[in-house]
Amino acid sequence: MTSTSLSAPARAKHWRPPSFSARFVPVWRRNLLVWRKLAFASVLGNIADPLLYMLALGYGIGALIGDVGGMPYIAFIGTGMVCQSAMFTASFEGMYSAFSRMHMQRTWDAIINAPIALDDVVLAEWIWCATKALMSTIAILLVLMALGYGRTPLAVAILPIGFLIGLVFGAFGLLMNALAPGYDFFTYFFTLVLTPMLLLSGVYFPVEQLPAWLQGIAGVLPLKHAIDLARPLMLGRVPDGIALHVAVLAAYAFAAFYVALALTRRRLLK
């Protein structure tokens, strides 16, 4: 029997369906307890940049252009910043923090030597990414409300959107983590994926201002679908096409997570 025939079943094993248990919860809780020690610095780091951009651009450019999309520009950009912050927070957690736990600190190795499967560890990391995204969503939404915007009961519905954004980009982050030889590798994802998505998804200006071909590209981006859900809620309106937007985000999240899990198995279960 050749080495190729031996390796084929091994490769197929990495792509088997996920097998989860409630044991992922203590792993998620472990991340929470560690985060609590640095909570203030962590929250400040996650929201400082989007908050400064929101205030500077919202009041600076907003004074020149007035309302955009039926809302003051600071509320317009603030809603985009809520989604952007969730995106970056989950991505950072799924890449840099997860890579540290997996490769540098060898925390994952220690955990899977206990009666906890790797699938549960990766699931816990995924849910933790979404939890961190939810935290950043809450923080920036509270700032917007303190400034007098989003004071509508429907604005609370932005919170599960933040969690869903965290699932999407946490999964993408874990996928990159499974491939990364080192921290520098993550720069490709930030430069080639997140930055273009940030500029094309309607964070800073309506997507309708773009050429038709760029609008077509924007229409398939997960951040655009998240913003299309969140921005009407800020105005106290129920968004159009809720099922479509949620379905697109969920499809991105679960597909990316499945690939991330398979690649992580390939990397660690040798």
Roughly how many Å apart are the termini? 20 Å
Helix/strand/pairing category: mainly alpha
- Catalogue the unreliable spans: 1-6
How many strand units?
Answer: 2
**Radius of gyration from the CA trace?**
20 Å
Overall description:
The chain is mainly α. The protein is built from twelve helices and two strands; from the N terminus they run H-H-H-H-E-E-H-H-H-H-H-H-H-H. The protein has a two-stranded antiparallel sheet. Strand 1 and strand 2 form a beta hairpin. Helix 5 packs parallel to helix 8 and helix 7 crosses helix 12. It is globular and about 60 Å long. The protein starts with a helix and ends with a helix.
Please tag this protein with its features.
single chain; mainly alpha; two-stranded antiparallel sheet; 12 helices; 2 strands; 75% helix
Itemize the secondary structure elements and their pairings.
Layout: H1 3-14, H2 24-37, H3 39-60, H4 62-65, E1 67-68, E2 71-72, H5 73-104, H6 107-112, H7 118-146, H8 158-179, H9 186-200, H10 212-218, H11 222-234, H12 242-268
Helix pairs in contact: 2-7, 3-5, 3-7, 5-7, 5-8, 5-11, 7-8, 7-12, 8-11, 8-12, 11-12
Concise overview:
It contains twelve helices and two strands. With 270 residues, the chain is mostly helical. The relative contact order is 0.14.
